[in-house]
Design a protein that fits this description.
mainly alpha; four-stranded mixed beta sheet
């Protein structure tokens, strides 16, 4: 029986920009332009040094090795080989009854996985999660993720040392975080090299189980969510996401399917991807492309809301003018 934790193709020298979602780059570019962003960043570094952050996050965790979670250790090593990671990064399992994982650290990145996920997930889905987190590290996301977690921790404790200046930074970090998740879902797909494990992982996150739920029905549910254009629905879609770090699982399912259908995954698997160290000239329009994609995405969302609003107004006028 084939080992589902092992991929069939090593993506030698792959650059993270090969899988990064344009909206991820656009949101990060916008984040860096926020007034006060540098000041908040400097204050955070002053309050929490690298060593202190690592100790805070790792106080209740087990470092994965050949003798500690050996199956996970082998899988993590193989994911690193598949995505040709430029270095080896520590992996930890922390006792937590929820499904989550994170890439953290400021100068020295590391990855943490919740114990519940290690216990419940099948090997292919767990490999997808590990590839997703390695994608964060290779894209350099962990610094901003760590900042966001620290800021959210301060906010929850009503410990407003950073003042109102931090609010736009937090909101912008949350927006970027949601887009970064879409990028790293693609890295997870490349690590497992099949679409189903990523989709099944989202089903698990949404409350599904391997034995009592149906993936095809969940995909249909994702399409229903994406296509809803009622004015109230559109408003609630925006408001529901405002303070969360991750897009809803159904959104991530739709985004993964769109990426597959675009042919981008197949091109990467055929060897057509950007490699680390390649000159930037062919990609000098990256920023413009990212901003354009982000603008189009926002236009589509609010355009649907505007269309719905117009229908409401037209209906009202029709009823008002009826003799």
């Amino acid at each position: 029986m084939p080992d589902s934790t092992r991929a069939t193709r090593i993506l030698t020298g792959i650059d993270s920009r090969s899988w990064e979602h344009p909206a991820d780059r656009a949101a990060l570019n916008a984040l860096r332009k926020i007034p006060g962003f540098d000041e908040v960043l400097r204050k955070l570094f002053g309050m929490f040094g690298e060593r202190q952050v690592r100790l805070a996050f790792l106080a209740n965790a087990v470092r994965v090795s050949e003798t500690q979670h050996p199956r996970l250790h082998e899988m993590w090593a193989d994911v690193g080989r598949t995505l040709d990671a430029p270095a080896e990064y520590p992996l930890y399992v922390t006792q937590n009854p929820t499904y989550n994982a994170a890439a953290l650290g400021m100068e020295k990145p590391f990855v943490m996985v919740h114990s519940e996920m290690v216990k419940d997930f099948e090997e292919a889905e767990l490999r997808f999660v590990l590839g997703h987190e390695l994608g964060h590290v290779m894209s350099g996301h962990q610094l901003y993720t760590t900042m966001l977690m620290l800021l959210l921790g301060l906010a929850r404790g009503n410990f407003s040392l950073l003042g109102l200046a931090a609010l736009p930074v937090v909101l912008a970090l949350l927006e970027w975080s949601r887009k970064a998740e879409l990028s790293c879902d693609r890295a997870g797909l490349l690590a497992v090299q099949a679409p189903e494990p990523g989709l099944r992982t989202m089903l698990q996150f949404a409350g599904g189980t391997f034995s009592e739920t149906n993936l095809a029905a969940f995909v249909e549910q994702a399409e229903e969510y994406r296509e809803s254009s009622d004015l109230t629905d559109q408003v609630f879609k925006v408001l529901n996401l405002l303070w969360v770090t991750h897009p809803f699982p159904v959104i991530r399912v739709a985004e993964m399917r769109t990426w597959f259908e675009s042919g981008a995954y197949e091109r990467i698997m055929a060897g057509e991807y950007r490699r680390r160290g390649e000159p930037d000239t062919p990609y000098r329009d990256d920023v413009e492309e990212a901003a354009r994609s982000y603008k189009e995405s926002a236009k589509e969302t609010f355009g649907q809301a505007a269309d719905a609003a117009k229908k409401v107004v037209d209906s009202f006028r029709s009823g008002f003018n009826r003799p």
